Amino acid sequence: xxxxxxxxxxxxxxxxxxxxxxxxxxxxxxxxxxxxxxxxxxxxxxxxxxxxxxxxxxxxxxxxxxxxxxxxxxxxxxxxxx
Length: 82
Description:
By secondary structure, the chain is mainly alpha-helical. The protein has a domain at 21-51. It is built from two helices and no strands. It has helices at residues 14-23, 60-68. The longest helix has 10 residues, at 14-23. It is elongated and about 65 Å long. The model has no long low-confidence stretch (mean pLDDT 78).
């Protein structure tokens, strides 16, 4: 039997990880209830839910690629075939 095994349960240093999580910057965006969001912020300053959607392409190359792309979700714009 290996000598490095013992009867103590494995417990990583969760206290250090918890301290880092508590010190993280918070999102602060207004939620629907009016309270500031308490989610941890990403580098852009907002959480993953309030980070904002991707913006439309600005460069001519991106605009051309967007116009020629095939849109699979038209949102009910297609005519129904009866």
